[in-house]
Amino acid sequence: MIQQFLRPLLWVRPLRCMLDERLDVRVRGLLPGVRVTLHALLHTEDGDFWEGFGHYISDDLGTVTVCKDASLGGSYDGVKPMGLLWSMKPIPGSRTGLRLRKKDVQAQSDVHISVYKDHLTHGFQEKAPIASVVAQRWYMAPGVQRVDVTDKGLKGTLFIPPGPGPFPAVLDLWGGGGGLVEYRSALLASRGYVSLSLEYSAETDAGGKPRHVEIDYFEAAITVLRQHPQVSPERLAIVGLSYGAFLTMYMAAYSSVIKPRCIVCISGSHAIPVSGSLVDISGLVKRLTKKPHYDKEQRQIWRAPLLPIPDDPLNKVEVDRIKCPILLIVGEDDQNCPASESADDMKQMMERAGNSHLLTVLTYPGAGHLIEPPYTPHCQASNFMLAETRTKVMVLWGGQTEAHSQAQEDSWHKILAFLEQHLYSNTSD
Fold first, then answer.
1. 55: containing domain
2. Which residues form a coiled coil (predicted)?
């Protein structure tokens, strides 16, 4: 047995790279036919530990090559080059309802990758690995600037690529969970876009005054973007997820100021009711939780109260008014939003208006609601804070881990290609 692990070498390249880049992981120096476990461990900013692991058998040359060899078990199986990362789950004994979200995008995420003897399923912390390395994963490329934005009552963060510009720009909108979420914007800036991550669902504005958000708040954000000296003002897009996708459609349809060159809508619906202020997250959540639907594990399912999609055009965004290209990303197992039904209705609306050429729909079987940047762990359910009562509920987002992770990788590359096509081209559709 000692002979089997005489001089093992764990080879990981690149050791320092962007979050949306693949890793090449190999083990060398084993004897043929040796059973080993590859293990990845991440210690988050919240103090939690997440892990992913795969079971391998060395080949005739005494090597394991993750991008070619099949995992025989663990948190994933089959030939999955990035399975160590996207299959990560909180380690046994962790707090319930966790969701992995990067807070400090200026700091790297250190992933500890190790090799252990035999095929293990638990107790990694109590055993000594036979080889180990640390891979750094970054959200911000070297030279990207991060700037706090408080102009015009806004609360946001601007990310600027290195170089003189001018660059295309993206307004980045997350969902109704609140908070200033920066990691997608940091990645977009690392790929050549000035990106503004905007907080819109907080109870107060940047000056501490009560916030009642109307469309002019988002128009102010667009103005800030367009007036920035490193932004090409006519090359602007909006990317939104969940409620942010609804807002994206709403602005593209009705604002005479915003007029994006293209929009990306992830896991959203055009049929969310609006009454009073445009951003009434507490009112929407109150409706969704008034008569909650539950799965067998008592996790709340929020898609049902938004069905059926209304026939009355006054009860949904008139997406047929949108005159720019739309990329719609849909997870067919979305348990939080009726994204599939909304996509079908949007297709019909665009076809009737003769605008179907503007709509591109990416549909992913087995994907859930939280379609995020690639190689990040799939979150099937997590805690959600109800603002009015300050109580936590467990919300089901949906998705199966492998299918969802494939959707994250594929959709991210297609988002980047879509933005490049419409923001870097000399003409607009």
1. 2-138
2. none
Contact 327, 362 (CB under 8 A): yes
130 shares a domain with 35: yes
The one catalytic residue among 172, 333, 334, 345: 334
Task: Give me the sheet containing 9-13, strands edge to edge.
Answer: 9-13, 24-28, 64-65
Tell me if residue 345 is catalytic: no
d(CA 211, CA 129): 53
- End-to-end Cα separation, the chain, in angstroms: 65
Q: Is 282 a catalytic residue?
A: no
Same domain, 157 and 281: yes
| Among 39, 55, 228, 369, the one annotated catalytic | 369
In a domain, 428, yes or no: no
Domain boundary among 138, 159, 176: 138
The label of the residue with tokens 């005494």 reads: 62
Which residues have CB under 8 Å from 406's CB, separation 6+? 364, 367
Mean pLDDT of successive 10-residue stretches along the chain, which has 429 residues: 68 97 97 97 96 98 97 98 98 95 96 98 94 98 97 94 95 90 98 96 61 85 96 97 95 94 97 72 72 89 91 91 97 97 97 96 98 97 80 94 98 98 75
Is-catalytic flag, 228? no
What's the CA gap between 34 and 359, in Å, rounded?
51
What's the CATH code of the domain at 160? 3.40.50.1820
Q: What proportions of the chain, in percent to the nearest 5, are helix, strand and coil?
A: 25, 30, 45
Residue type, position 165, single letter? G
